[in-house]
């Protein structure tokens, strides 16, 4: 990972059609783009790394965000019959933090203070989210964050559209015990999310009568795994739980197979491994392994068929869709629906009004109907497990019947702890200790 001296890129991307604006040079603050009727555009920050060790994933998040914004501005896709936000176009202000946590912090300040964006769509790793969180909380601005994460957080300045622990980990560990065995070897990249996620998964495994036979971490961006693979051979686990991210994913899968360990010998259950990484490494290295996600490209809904077709039409037929990409798409429509609600109610687009309008938003997403939970600002999402096939796509071997209510705190570690924002602007002490088991709840719409 680069140091703080690595230069990031600030680039204003031209919105399509009536909201198009010229490209700004690095360091420039772009002018607002007028809509067809002369209205100013609504500035929205887009903050994903398109260079560096995490670019393999974050570029796809940016692409999905661009697709959603174009559909909103053009009145196509889920926004058919409309155009913009009550006639105002969304103007993208795009920054590239270059996979550098310090630059996420600096660029979030710039987007808020200099570019005056209404909100920001962005971040992938928990390290980048943690880097910018103090900025959004201090300045009382909103971040829409699209990635599954370790939980244990409940900010009124973040809308979380990726999975909470109970929407990814809670179902995957029992599946591993039932189908593979009780001995798990845990690996991950060496930062917040993999360590905390594995801590939760290990607790779930032990609670289920299993045993942790290994727990290893590699520096972010590591592509050499022979030492860890030798430890796996010695430990003889029934399965591997992988929380490696970025460029480390293809390297590990390839080296594991080169070492003679196939999915039939020791299957991998992964959280960060998506269609994107599998396409990059070659599906022959992932075939027979598993991932736990809310969405796979193979989800059978009319909305997903349209999403995949529209994404490929825009970015190329060779491209694939994935779970974090879908979450980035979802949150852009949550944001747009909230902005539209403010416009219809003649409310100024302040943080307070946008926050209140986003709570409770529903969207017919590619994965199925989802909802922004007004209690904790996380999202009702499906929980699914996919087995990777020779074509690089997933056979869905497990799915919940509907979207699951998010619980930000792992109940395996923090029994009875939940997050409740009793009012939209509640910015302190949202944690509630119920001291009672928290039941699984589902959205009442498929």
TrEMBL record:
Where do the TM regions start and end? none
Q: Which domain of life is it from?
A: Bacteria
Please give one Gene Ontology molecular function term for this protein: amide binding
Q: Which residues form a coiled coil?
A: none
Entries under InterPro entries matching the protein: AmiC_PBP1, Peripla_BP_I
Gene3D superfamilies, A to Z = 3.40.50.2300
Region: Disordered; residue ranges are 18-37
**What is a single Pfam family found in this protein's UniProt entry?**
Peripla_BP_5
Q: Where is the composition biased (Low complexity)?
A: 18-36
Q: What is this protein called?
A: ABC-type branched-chain amino acid transport system, periplasmic component
Annotated organism of origin = Chamaesiphon minutus (strain ATCC 27169 / PCC 6605)
